[in-house]
Amino acid sequence: MELPKTETLLLEQAGGVLYITLNRPDSRNAMSLAMVEELRAVLAAVRDDASVRALVLRGAGGHFCAGGDIKDMASARATGGEAYQRLNRAFGSLLEQAQAQPQVLIAVLEGAVLGGGLGLACVSDLAIALQGAQFGLPETSLGILPAQIAPFVVKRIGLTQARRLALTAARFDGLEALRLGLVHFAETESATLEQRLVDSLEQIRRCAPGANARTKALLLATESEPLGPLLDSAAEQFALAVTGAEGAEGTLAFVQKRKPSWAE
């Protein structure tokens, strides 16, 4: 696998993990169109690479992401409403792609987690935050809409809480994000946050990559597919998994009281 060259992202691959760092610290990693396109290209490049077990998404300079890039919005203003529409929808396409990514997606949330940054957090499989991180949907206070992130926020924390947060533009910290179910862990300091990341990656490595990818797809399908056909499909996938390479290796490893090959 060859990763695309990037100017707004830092990429590092180690131990079956691709670490993706949003790297525009001067703007608190605001999401420019260039960053959206680069992130989509990276996700596409690793999508079918079974050697990449997890993706870790975080920001440089002590912040995750402060939302959309105002400079991009200013450029779009010069060319009219259609440019705004394309710019906005591009970010929604990124969220759709990230949510459906076969690998486990971990968001490490520090500093500003605002607007589009909060949207990225909402499509992660595992979100680890600092208690002092600052979350919020500031769009309505700027006279605009959280247009692309709204559906993902609702799915993550429910309509009642999403309405409150979007219609007040309220800021909240990592502990409140934990209470809302937006994040899974809220750590007191950077050292414990990093240890939580290490521990979580170790847990993911115990899981077969193919089984994880198919399980993630099954879980996401529960939001859109009728129950009966979904269970029929799941039964078919279960039978294929049991008789497949991962199922055979997992069963044999259990009998032989050893780790399966993917966990070594």
Contiguous low-pLDDT stretches (5 residues minimum) are none
What is the number of helices?
A: 11
Radius of gyration: 19 Å
Strand sequence of the main sheet, in spatial order? 1-2-3-4-6-9
Helix content: 40-55%
Mean pLDDT, all residues: 95
Give the termini distance in whole angstroms: 22 Å
Major beta sheet, specifics? Answer: 6 strands, mixed
Structure description:
With 264 residues, this protein is α/β, with parallel strands linked by helices. It is 50% helix and 16% strand. It has eleven helices and nine strands. It has helices at 33-46, 70-77, 81-100, 116-122, 150-157, 159-168, 174-180, 190-205, 209-221, 227-243, 245-255; strands at residues 9-14, 17-22, 54-59, 104-109, 112-114, 126-130, 134-136, 171-173, 185-187. The strands form two sheets. A six-stranded mixed beta sheet has the order 1-2-3-4-6-9, sandwiched between helices. Helix 1 (33-46) links the parallel strand 2 and strand 3 (54-59). Helix 1 runs parallel beside helix 3 (81-100). The longest helix has 20 residues, at 81-100. 36% of the residues are buried.
